Amino acid sequence: MSKYSNFLHTKAYRRTFLTYQVIALLLAATILGFVYRDMLNSAQENFVAESTKVYEGVDRRVGQVVNSIDQFYTQIYASPGLAEDFFRYFGSSAQEYTMRRLLQPREPDVNIMVDFKNLVQTSDYSIRHIICYAPENVVDLEFNSRGDARHRIITTEEAEAICRSGCAYQMDIHRKSAYVGKISIVMDLTGFIDRVMPNEPGRGLCLMLPHGTISRGQVQISAQQAAQLMEQGGVRQGTTESGAFYYAGYTSQYLPFSILYLVQSQVLLQGMLRSFVLLAVCFVLAFGAINVVLIRRFSQDTDYIRTILHSMAEAEKENFDQISIAGANPEYDAIVRGLNDLYRHLDNLIQQEYKLTISQQRAQMDMLAAQLNPHFLYNTLERIRMRALTEHAPDVAEATAGLGLLYRNIVKTEPVISMKQELEITRQYLDLMTFLYGDEFMYYFDVDPELEEVMTPKIWMQPIVENFFKHNFRQDDQIKVIVVELKTIPDGYEFRFFDNIGFMEPEQLEQINRDLEEDGSRQGQGIGLYNVLHRLRLFYAGQLHMTMENNDPEGICIRIVYQKGESDDVSSADRG
After folding, report:
1. What is the separation, in whole angstroms, between the first and last Cα of the chain?
2. 528 φψ region: left (φ > 0), alpha (ψ -120 to 50), beta (else)
3. 3-state class of 565 per DSSP?
4. Whole-angstrom Cα distance, residue 482 to residue 479?
5. Ramachandran area for residue 538 (φ above 0: left; ψ -120 to 50: alpha; else beta)
6. What is the pLDDT along the chain (576 residues), one digit of tens a residue?
7. pTM score, whole prediction
8. CB atoms near residue 313 (< 10 Å)
9. Which residues pair with 151 in a beta bridge?
């Protein structure tokens, strides 16, 4: 795994990979969030549909029973015989009702008790009590689940207790437009509820009557909590000691009761959660597979980049081995081809230019060493200096010592020295020229201090100032002056060497400057300006220009300008 994670050490790939990770995770979280919300809404919609079905099943059956009761009362008032038998029963005990029927047998086929039993049968035996409130007595006609009846006289308190035990439907009784009492039909709705309740776990229903609450199913809550939930309305979540649940409340349009339908949260959401977890697992697997592909791709690209960077590092050490990357994409393949072409070109240049120049310089140094023994020269100059002091010629002695020091610096110093050391060698040469020309010659240095520590090739200023003595100086009474200026300019340096004598025709200057710009047309003609320019351009990687011009008001000026480049951070050791 560490092999494939190496790309994280590369900033560009690390940033790209981490950015992808963040974007992918945010996108996955957003998609899963929307999916979860849609699944939750779908589960809630299914819950609403289920609870509505339960409520409508109960309320529709209650409505049918209420319609049957209304039709029953309409039938009583529409049939005089049935109405007479009803009022004969109203407020009477069983014995009184029987005696009245025997004493007044107007319509023997009419019997209110039969109609009551038919009404109970029509209600699927949900009617359990028919209570008649007459001025004299309160009569309770009680039915069991098979339709069997029991007739009894009860108190008003007992009648109210019976009404509180179920769902009561009350109607006032009038006779000849006069109020004579009321009748309450008490129904037991649990049978209706049991028929429509889904036979599935985790569900419950609260039947909320005006005087109490009846709970059915596995989700049980108190009457107080049921009342609070009913007031909130809508589809919501609640909690009990047994856990969380969803609930929905409905109020009947026929009788004074409400239904609160409840489903445990884990039961409602278990199917949704199973699908959601499966979808999340698919997302994770897809995310992992994409990551594997990206990691392998980034790892391969990182290997290609490291191979290229290693090759470039080796190229700095002049090792121009060709790069070979198998299976790389077209972009990296194009980079490798370009680098290989560049390495071949650089290698050819080094073979043709750098190594050839070095070999020429070494040959020249070997030739000088073969022609002149430095120790013999130093010893001879020292004897001349001592002889001059003995014969009282201190100027000759000082000049001889300066000449010996000059040659010692030329032979002993390193090929690359500081600008300060190069100026000192030039100063020693000009001091010798001062001795030779006497009062006819003087020189002046104007150097920015920050340039003194800049590294440079050895002995390139001395040939330039020597050029003035070879071509411009003549024996006359005019005072001759040479000025050396070293200044910093934006992104580089400017070196100016000029005197106060001499003049060159414009055509001659143009030809010389053209040769200087081409750099090479006069190589091998001694240690003149062309060889100096060639050495400087080798050292400064070609970012240097030399021009010659007439000095104003008189004299010749040699101007050298060096502009730094992006690859100019090269140490003095590398220059050597």
Report:
1. 45
2. beta
3. coil
4. 10
5. alpha
6. 555 556 666 666 667 777 888 888 888 889 988 888 888 888 888 888 988 999 899 999 999 999 999 998 888 888 888 888 888 888 787 778 877 777 766 555 678 888 888 889 988 899 999 999 988 889 999 998 888 888 899 999 999 999 988 899 998 988 888 888 999 999 998 888 888 888 888 888 888 888 888 888 888 888 888 888 888 776 778 887 668 888 898 898 888 889 989 898 888 888 788 888 888 899 888 888 887 777 777 676 677 777 777 778 877 777 777 777 766 667 777 787 787 888 777 777 776 666 556 655 654 555 444 444 454 455 555 556 565 666 666 666 666 666 666 666 666 567 788 999 899 888 888 887 887 777 788 999 999 999 999 998 888 888 898 888 888 777 777 888 999 999 999 888 999 999 988 888 889 888 888 888 875 445 433 347 888 888 888 888 767 889 999 988 888 999 999 988 644 544 333 444
7. 0.50
8. 10
9. 141
Residues 399 and 405 sit within 8 Å (Cβ to Cβ): no
Strand-pairing partners, residue 217, are 204
Distance of CA 414 to the CA centre of its chain: 56
Residue among 54, 365, 2, 361 nearest 207 (CA): 54
Please check whether residue 462 is in contact with residue 431, taking contact to mean a CB–CB distance below 8 angstroms. no
Q: 524-527 long-range CB contacts below 8 Å, 24 or more apart?
A: 527/463
The two most distant CA atoms of the chain are separated, in Å, by 188
Neighbour count for residue 260 (Cβ, 10 Å): 25
Residues sharing a CB contact under 8 Å with residue 332, sequence separation 6 or more, in sequence order: 301, 304, 308, 325
Let me know: does 536 contact 560? Beta carbons within 8 Å.
yes
Give the C-alpha distances (Å, rounded to integers) separating 312 from 24, 320, 323: 36, 8, 10
> 187 and 207 in contact (C-beta within 8 Å)?
no
In the three-class reduction of DSSP (H, G, I as helix; E, B as strand; rest coil), residue 143 is classed as strand
Q: Give whole-number Cα distances, 282 to 21, 274, 276, 288, in Å.
A: 17, 12, 10, 10
Beta bridge partners of 154: 138
- Sign of the Cα torsion 367, 371, 375, 381 reads negative
